[in-house]
Amino acid sequence: MRKGLSWFNILSLVLGFGLLYLPIVLLVIFSFNESRLVTVWAGFSTKWYGELLKNQALLDAAWVTLRVAAVSSTLATILGVVAGLAMARFGRFRGRTLFSGMIYAPLVMPEVITGLSLLLTFVALSVNRGFVTVTLAHVTFSMCYVAVVVQSRLVSFDRAIEEAAMDLGCPPARTFFYITLPVIMPAVVSGWLLAFTLSLDDLVIASFTTGPGATTLPMKIYSQVRLGVTPEINAISTILIGIVAVGVVVASLLSKRQELRRRADERLAAAAP
Amino acid sequence: MAAATGATRSGHEPWNDPAAEAYVRIVGVSKSFGDFTAVDDVSLEIYKGEFFALLGPSGCGKTTLLRMLAGFEQPDRGRILLDAEDMVSVPPYQRPVNMMFQSYALFPHMSVEQNIAFGLRQERLPKLEIQKQVKDMLELVQLGGFAKRKPHQLSGGQRQRVALARSLVKRPKMLLLDEPLGALDKKLREQTQFELMNIQDELGITFVIVTHDQEEAMTVSSRIAVMDHGRIAQVATPAEIYEYPSSRYVAEFIGDVNLFEGRVERIDPGPMEISCAEAGCRIQVHHGPDTRVGHKVWVAIRPEKLQVSLEPPADTRVNCLSGEVWDIGYLGNLSIYHVHLETGLKVTTAQANSTRLVERPITWQDRVFLTWALETAVVLTA
Amino acid sequence: MSEHEGTPVAYVSGRAATPGSLAGLHARAMLFPPYRRAVGLGERLGVTGRGLLIALPYLWLLLFFLLPFLIVLKISFSEARIAIPPYAPLLQYLEDSYLQLTVNFENYRLLLEDSLYWRSYLSSVQIAGTSTLLALLIGYPIAYGMARAPREWRLTLLMGVILPFWTSFLIRVYAWIGILKKEGLLNLLLLKLGLIQEPLTILNTDVAVYIGIVYSYLPFMVLPLYANLEKMDDSLLEAAADLGCRPLKAFWVITVPLSLPGIIAGCFLVFIPAVGEFVIPDLLGGSETLMIGKTLWAEFFNNRDWPLSSAVAVVLLLFLVLPIVLFQRLQARSG
Q: Does residue B337 share a domain with residue B244?
């Protein structure tokens, strides 16, 4: 689609993105509000960020969340890569339909169902709920996202280079690690990032599967929100948004730079005989 | 059969030598994908140092056969022997066979050097040895200064040479090439064809090339196997295939040909005589195939073998076609005359333009007579 | 495997061999009949290198995805107790080592009788359905605009949609509280513009829930639509124009039908999770807002009735099985 933008297109883009970003922008603005209200601007102040640093409970929750996210996303990536590889490469193996179902269902399953079922399982297995159970729960649904990302990357992968590697004497397992994995690494990394974000953001499943001492940041935010809206929440929201924004901007700049360099290389190569 | 046809530079023609042992033997190999039979009971013998071509249209099974030689497909039936060792149960990473892929399949995250060194690293050779061999190979394919570049920084022709270097560096017993020159433009293709032949000659490795381009097959190969729907139609040197095709399929596949359907009238005493309503004359040949009187045969004559003249020959009833020049195609070096015979059949004859155009005596709608040297017509029974 | 005469050559000597590696070792070992037979037997049982590899995620999912559903089903047949865990065991050993299975249909009966539950289900489906439609109506123009934007802008626009997607769901819903509440920013704006006299009550009503769901799930609708529209062939529209078709008609007759896979994918990605959504109705909706996710949560955390919550979950799952299976078929076909 390259036809160019009509006024309708421009209007829908402006309104659409405006809608998407309005709440976020307002959130950020009012995190710097002098007064306690989040709707009446009383002047610029960073005191809420200061309050944030003194809120030990919130900081503890943030630390727990980071640890859960780091561990679960790494595990989820490993399992997800294997699952994605199986779906894309292993053809029709026994039990593939069930496997495929278990990979795709969590992508759309309502979180209350996943959360409840996992909690009941942990209780039935007499596992103490806490850091470990939250992490296990996060691994379970994150791995499906990673699997889907990896699978779609492998499907569009040129298998000829794997065959070339095997032809040159490289057994299949080594081919995967030396050839396939490096080439699909961007997809694996984006899978890791996706798993990390999903874990960071999860409220419902964490509420069901966590235990004492392992309260996550979303849970903390949620409980404070129920009590009332305060600019401290705005402050921490702004920090989280900032981190994500920086990440997204950096990623897109890097990819753009890579794209430009690649195009320059190709132009250089096409000039030579 | 034919005498030494001068098909190879060295004059060495092991397929004509009963004492020679085949280096690669494909015995009764078949392969099906579901209902589709890709390769149907194929047997071939390839000799050491040959540049062997598998030629045919798409879907004829040549690529499947090549992949079975490489080890990426398993034949349903049959054996594949390389240097007297049965290869069928050997996985591709353990065969002394290397392949050059159609898309080159260079490792995008490795440099040219690393690509070429890859195969040697799998053999756990010492580092210095690997470096030396990679350097030698880069010299051979004339890519000396490109060692550190990555594939996306190379042009199509350069990538192709890296792919070639990578597949040769392990000195395999056999090199398989899957339509290697398809992506190159005409000039580069011709140049590369001769480079390939030189490299093959110098290294003495047995090459098996798959192609659908008959000119390419004719140029580079010592022998060609023409394939049709999974079967081998004919295996012979390029000259033999062109001059003595064994069937109409082969005759029509390679180059242009005029075919006349006829019936055998007389075999003994020679020459063999064939009545041909399509040609409008009797056709006589000195050496005919093994057939009986009354059988249907086809006579194949290549366009360049037909002599066209405004003057009728001595006897217009034998080995003479007559008709009207219906169209002339001027190709610069050749003129193709499309002649409408009196019998209604259209034939083509190609004449080199050895004189200038204005001096050419034959033009549209001229009545002409086409004759040929007796031994240049081939009688086909299939 | 084909039938061959002669000795099986499992590896090749000389320069072509792979010395020292596991594969080479395995290949050499394959020359010994006992090893070869053991490997063959293993292959028939599915114990291959590949099999063991798949087993990792497979077993994980069986344990942490499938088994939990079975447990939910089991507990839905139990009855609530003041105990830890707060439900009666289904299987009990009696003195003479008989196994007593108590299946209690009470929970399901309650679901059918008490109007709260089936009203919640219906309301959830209705809210989710309407929100999906609204998301489609809003998301399609955005995706369409993105697809027609000049090449250089597309990456930026895509990043622009992805950024909210990666930002915390909870935070974005929270942001709407500040906007929609009685003394919130929307009312302030409308009052200032003189469009209304009294502040509107939007927060804690169904309307807020619609806004919340549409807003939060918008990226899920835009991204598949964009992916589909971006790949669409320009020349189709050019051909239509060449044949005399006006642009607006061409849009309805060509673009929309071809973008159907994207539409369907987007709708699935919004509808199915929205039916069981909890956070949005809880934070933005009122006490009259009935959504099954909220009902389940309340049943579980407030009433401590685990068996009933399980029954609610089972019925919800049954509702969603059909769409989930359809979604999966769709993915499998396009994958």
A: no
